Structure formats: C-alpha cells, structure tokens
Amino acid sequence: LRLWGVLDGALVQAQKAVELDPTNYLAHQALGQTYAARGEQGTMKAAVDAYKEAARLATGEPKAVQATLQDDMALVLAALGDNEASIEAYRKACSLDPTNAQYLNNLGAALQRSGNLPEAQQAIARAVELEPGGTAYVANLAVASREAGDLDTAIATYLEAIRLDANNAQMHQQLGWTLYMRSDPGKAIASYIAARTADITDDQVREALATVALHFFRNQRTSRIDAMDPRVYEATPRLARSPNPGLTLRSDLRELWNT
Questions:
Q1: Taking the CA of residue 244 as centre, how many other CA atoms within 13 Å lie in the half-sphere pointing to its CB?
Q2: In whole angstroms, what is the distance from residue 235 CA to residue 252 CA?
C-alpha cells in the first residue's frame, strides 16, 4: 500500500503489525517508513521513534540490516534539520557496514552541512574508492574538496566526473567556477562553453559564463583584436539564446567589441 501511495491504509496496516508482533523489528521498520513517507513534521518525528525501536530490536540481526536502519533513520533526522543526530546515525551505519559507499557519501554530505569539511572530504573520498564509477560520488567529492579550499583536488575530481559523464552540463559548469576561483578564467570559459554545448538550457550557466567572460576580457585583454577573438565572438549565438538580454553573452561581448 505504501509503495502504491495509499499512505493512510499503509499506516493502519503497519500499526496493526506492531500491535500483533511488537518485538518484530520489521514491523517497526515498516511503520517508520510509512510515517516518513507522509513527510509531515509530526509523522517524521514518529518515524524516528519507530526506527529507534526497530534498531533496538534488530541488535541480533546481520550488521548490514542494522546499518540500513541507521541510514534510514539518519535521512529522516536530516529532513527534520537535526544534523548532529543525523551524523551520529550515519556514523553508526558506516561502522556497521564500512564498505557501503552510499552510507559514506551520506555521512560526507551531513558533515558538509555541519561545516566539518576535512572529514566530509575524507568520507566521500572513501565512497569514491569503493565505487570509482559512481558519478554522483565523484561529483560530491569535487564539491567537498572545493568547499575545503582544495581547488587542485576539486578540479581533478571534476575532470574525472566529466570523463564518466561527458555530457553533464552541471559538471562543466562547476568545473568552470572552480577554475575561475583558481584565477584560470581562460579554461573557465572553455568549461562553460562545454556546458552550453551539452544542449541543456540553463540560465544560471549562461549568466555565469557571461560573468566569467567579462572578467576575463576586461582584465586580460592586450588589445581589442586579441581580446575579442572572432572565433569566440562567432560562437556566442548558440551560447546566448535567453529571453532575458541581461543574461546573454552575445550582447556583453558586442559591448566589449564596440569599446
């Protein structure tokens, strides 16, 4: 019933299961899942209580089962905004199942939210080691590295994410910002152009591209001709098809060309 979206009926059945067999961790787990699926403040708190009881009853179960309960509870705690309790539950999940990349990635995300950037980077790096082909983990590692101020690692990791998914415009965009932060605007522009050629309409990408391009041309041009390479100028129509002229690279470059 829960999977079909019939949450009221699912809740009645889960409560009945707990009533009939109060020592069965699966019944409490199902109750927690149903409360969490409702997504309301009160039911989310009830979901945490149900998961806690399920975890208590599952102490004799395989560690992988116990880890799943901790990870599920951590997700609910994070949704409630209790980041510290969420981190504690994620740590328990990782301790019970230390080779689960998803748990490590979730722990890293929670640590990022708390501002513990070095440990976040370490946790997500471990997730990448376990699943090197996991694009989401690689991308998260790049973000964590950048937030920790480790721009070289962030750039190398974004490049790996792009290798895994060459048409991911978001990764090209984030690589562009990171290169810009490292004062490498020329390569940043190339990354933004790559993002636009991924055929994904994204005004934020377009706006960022215009911002970086303006910075580059205003601060690094040696002459009007060198600064406004015709190849760059001719490429702008396909990079700037926004209904908002304020976001278009073409108009910005035309202004620079004229001045």
A1: 8
A2: 13
